[in-house]
Design goal:
Blueprint: E1 2-7, E2 62-66, E3 69-72, H1 73-89, H2 93-123, H3 130-142, H4 150-157, H5 161-181, H6 190-199, E4 209-213, E5 217-218, H7 225-244, H8 250-257, E6 268-273, H9 279-287, E7 298-299, E8 302-303
Antiparallel strand pairs: 1-4, 2-3, 4-6, 5-8, 7-8
């Protein structure tokens, strides 16, 4: 494993719902049903009265209601695609599996926030005319590359033009509410800002993160001790070669030998915070020196 830098991005979640993974964020199709139980021996009579398969999840299914407003599967998937879709698809499979629940939580938090805000805006009498929506659409169209249309833009975002119009209307109502609420707010003096910062340092703390790359020698499906030892030997030999060249050939070695999809990026896993990787990998990534080639680490996926 190679840790290339140490950054400190901030992240604030508004609500913590503890949601189960109700929706498969990375796919438009519903999640596959659980694997069937192991078949009974032929000599035994088949079981009767088996439970029916769970119904497929529909895009119109309501996940929860906020202030009387339903939030559907489609709402979640559209926001996920807009915020995280492309970045999520480029992540290694093991990292996707670990952070999908967190991303789903973030999407749900944003939808809850937005729903509460737009409902508050409507209660305050904020309205958006069709002309305002069309003006915003024109502004979007002006930023689209030559040769592409609004329809192309909508298709690339995975939504319809009508959904974009709905979103424009929602965002405009929230903006109008913000403008009304902040109309009489004065800008604090620099001295007041500094005083608040000095008195509340904990509010500005940011979680530590690292940017790491790795080479995975997978042990998935292997139980034989001899084969496991052989995999460990391969990992240690690769590490020795990396150390001998001071990591200069890391990307090349990853592309040739790694069993992780990140091999396509030279083993680069990108930036991540604590809690996003399996514990053994996380401990190693956050404890080794920046730029160093770490010791081999064994996880449920194999040797890193």
């Amino acid at each position: 494993m190679k840790t290339t830098t140490d950054r400190l991005p901030g992240l604030a979640l508004v609500l913590t719902l503890g949601l189960a993974p109700l929706v498969s964020l990375a796919q438009d199709a519903p999640p596959a049903p659980p694997a069937p139980a192991e078949a009974a021996p032929a000599a035994e009579a088949p079981a009767t009265g088996a439970a029916p398969a769970a119904p497929a999840i529909s895009e119109t299914d309501v996940i929860l209601e906020v202030d009387g407003t339903p939030i559907t599967v489609l709402d979640i998937r559209e926001l996920f695609t807009a915020r995280y879709g492309r970045q999520f698809e480029q992540m290694p499979a093991e990292q996707r599996a670990l952070i999908e629940p967190q991303i789903q939580q973030m999407v749900m938090n944003e939808l809850i926030q937005k729903t509460l805000l737009v409902n508050a805006a409507e209660k305050e009498g904020m309205k958006v005319s069709a002309e305002e929506v069309e003006e915003s659409l024109k502004a979007i169209a002006a930023q689209i590359p030559d040769g592409a249309s609004l329809e192309d833009f909508a298709k690339s975002a995975g939504v319809s033009l009508d959904r974009i119009r709905e979103q424009i209307s929602t965002d405009t109502k929230i903006r109008k509410l913000y403008e009304k609420v902040t109309a009489d707010v004065t800008t604090p003096a620099e001295a007041d800002v500094k005083k608040y910062f000095d008195e509340h340092p904990e509010e500005f703390e940011q979680a530590a993160s690292v940017d790491a790359a790795h080479i995975l020698i997978s042990t998935q499906g292997i139980e034989d001790p001899t084969q496991l030892a052989a995999k460990e030997k391969i990992a240690k030999e690769l590490r020795e070669e990396l150390v001998s060249k001071k990591g200069e050939n890391f990307a090349e070695m990853a592309s040739l030998h790694s069993d992780c999809p990140s091999k396509a990026q030279g083993g680069d896993l990108g930036e991540f915070e604590k809690g996003q990787m399996v514990p053994e990998f996380e401990t190693a990534a956050f404890s080794q020196e920046v730029g160093a080639i770490g010791e081999c680490v064994k996880t449920q996926f194999g040797y890193h």
